[in-house]
Each structure stands twice: as C-alpha cells, then as structure tokens.
Design a protein that fits this description.
Structural class: mainly alpha
Order of helices and strands: HHHHHEEHHHHHHH
Radius of gyration: 20 Å
Mean pLDDT: 87
Number of helices: 12
Number of strands: 2
C-alpha cells in the first residue's frame, strides 16, 4: 500500500478511474466530484481541530497554539495502542480520549491559568512551549521515522453511486458531523452548555450568577485537547505516525477557525469541509504546493473583509 510522506495533510487516494466508474456522469465531472469527495475527509479533520480553538477562545479569550501537537499525540497513542499492543480501535479510542482530557486539564493549569490570572499574554509562548516539548518527548519515545498505521476498516473503497471513498475517510466525515451536532445540542439543550455560553458572553457576569467560571475554562481546554486527540486517532491511518504529523494540520485548522469565526462553531464545520474540498481540487487540477498557500491567504482576506469571521457576529461595545 502506497503512503504519502509529506506532512501537509491526510493522504487523499482516489480509486483508479475505470470505464465503469463514471458510467452515469461525464468523465470530467466524475474527476471533479471524486477529488472533492476525498477532500471532505481532510476538511472534517481540520474542522475538529479548529473547534478546539473556538472552545478555548470563547471561554478564556486565549488560544492553544499547540493544538497540532495534541493531534500528533493522539495519533502516536493510536499507533502504540493499536499497532504495538494490539488493542482494538474501539477500546483504544475511549482510553485516548480520557488521557487527552486529563492531560489537557493539567496543561491548562500550568501553561495558561497562571498567565490569565496575571493578565499577561505569555500564554501564547507557554502553549507553544508545551507543544515543542511534546514533539521532543515523542521523538524520544517513538523516534523520528514515519510509521504506518493500518486502516480500521480496510482499504476496499465504498461505492456512492459512481463515486468511491475509502471507509476511513467516510468514518472521519461521519464522526465529525456527529461531533458538531452533539456539540450544538450540548450548547443549546444542557445546563452545562448554557453555562459555557454564558461564560463566553461575560465571565464576570457569569461568576456573579453563580457559575463556576474556572471549571468551565478548564473543561473547555480539556475538551479542545480531546477533540485534537480524536482527530489524531482518525487521521493517522491516512497519514504516517510521526512526531511532526500534526504541525501543518494545526496551522491550517487555525486558519479555518479565523475564516469561519472563533465564536462560530457551526461555521467552522462548514468552512472546514469547504476548505478540504477546495484544497483537494487545487491539488488535483493545479499543483500540490499551491494548497499550502491557500489557507493563510484566505485568512488574511477574511480578516480584511470581515474581521469577526464569515459566520461570526460583530462585537458590540457597551458603555
């Protein structure tokens, strides 16, 4: 099985075009739809990581700039559990999520909370420092050599009409949609979710209303780490397990969060899927290197035209 070696994002493998593949649609349209469909899985991964930026920003007005490294940690743990120790993926996933939640809470306690209390912006450097330490420890534990992780569902493509998609890619898209739907219900239908929204609106007012703002902040940071770990768990069979696997993924997810709006979780999923499809189309029709220019170019454009993001709302200053 051929695997990509570039860390730019998940491998996008389109099944070979045969005479029977585009039977119902023209060849050019088949090629377009096939590439776009494969890109949706990449976009779903970007969206899962990007929602972590949204969670921490909404509750603390701080960002975990090392989320890409947390993706790497999730991927490397998946490699250790499923490949080295033979743990079934369905058993490995809850173990990874629990560990990521705990590590996220600890990281927030020591790398973010002290600086927020002091009113300092040093958390920018401290979160990056944590990420760099994670890469160093990963290289010590697992080495620098990229290592393959078998797909959880095999490599036989799933047919969707005339199109095909790998089972792992279909799994990523489905899980991302379920996560975003559940997150939306959490925000709107649960008391804890409403507490998150209240803290996002005003931490001081929320504290006066009896909401434990500190607990909400810790929970948001831990959840962001868990989402990153989930992304690493799902994407590592499409890439290679290596300490640098999450760096570019985290940077592109940050661009998507800015484009959609850090306070707009729904928009992040839409922008993530659209970005992934557009990135795949650019790689298929033009040149792979151009796709790496796309994200931050769109981010700069979005910031200049709509600073709050495409799905964000302008912040009203109150006297």
């Amino acid at each position: 099985m051929t695997r990509a070696t570039a860390p730019a994002g998940p491998r996008e493998r389109a099944p070979a075009v045969t005479s029977s593949s585009p039977a119902a649609i023209p060849l050019r349209m088949y090629f377009f739809l096939q590439i776009a469909l494969s890109g949706l899985a990449t976009g779903a991964i970007y969206g899962l990581i990007a929602v972590g930026y949204s969670l921490t920003f909404m509750t603390t007005k701080a960002l975990n700039f090392a989320l890409g490294m947390w993706v790497m940690l999730g991927g490397m743990l998946t490699f250790s559990l499923t490949v080295q120790y033979g743990v079934p993926p369905l058993v490995a996933l809850p173990l990874i999520l629990i560990l990521m939640l705990a590590l996220g809470a600890v990281a927030e306690r020591f790398s973010v909370a002290p600086f927020l209390r002091a009113g300092s912006d040093v958390w920018v450097m401290s979160t990056l420092a944590v990420g760099l330490l994670m890469i160093d420890f990963a290289e010590i534990i697992w080495g620098r050599s990229p290592t393959p992780v078998p797909s959880f569902f095999g490599n036989a493509p799933v047919r969707i009409g005339a199109l095909s998609i790998l089972p792992q890619q279909l799994f990523i898209i489905a899980i991302a949609c379920v996560v975003f739907f559940a997150l939306d219900l959490f925000y709107r239908r649960t008391l804890t979710g409403k507490a998150f929204r209240a803290v996002a609106h005003s931490g001081e007012v929320s504290a006066l209303m009896g909401i434990n703002t500190r607990r909400v902040q810790v929970a948001s940071y831990a959840a962001a780490a868990a989402f990153a770990g989930l992304a690493g768990f799902m994407v590592v069979p499409l890439t290679l397990a290596e300490p640098q696997m999450g760096t570019v993924l985290g940077l592109k997810a940050f661009a998507i969060a800015i484009i959609a709006g850090l306070a707009a979780p729904r928009g992040i999923l839409v922008c993530g899927l659209a970005y992934g499809a557009l990135e795949a189309l650019i790689s298929g029709y033009l040149y792979t290197g151009i796709r790496d220019i796309l994200g931050f170019s769109l981010m700069i454009l979005a910031l200049s035209l709509k600073p709050e993001g495409l799905f964000g709302r302008p912040v009203e200053e109150r006297a």
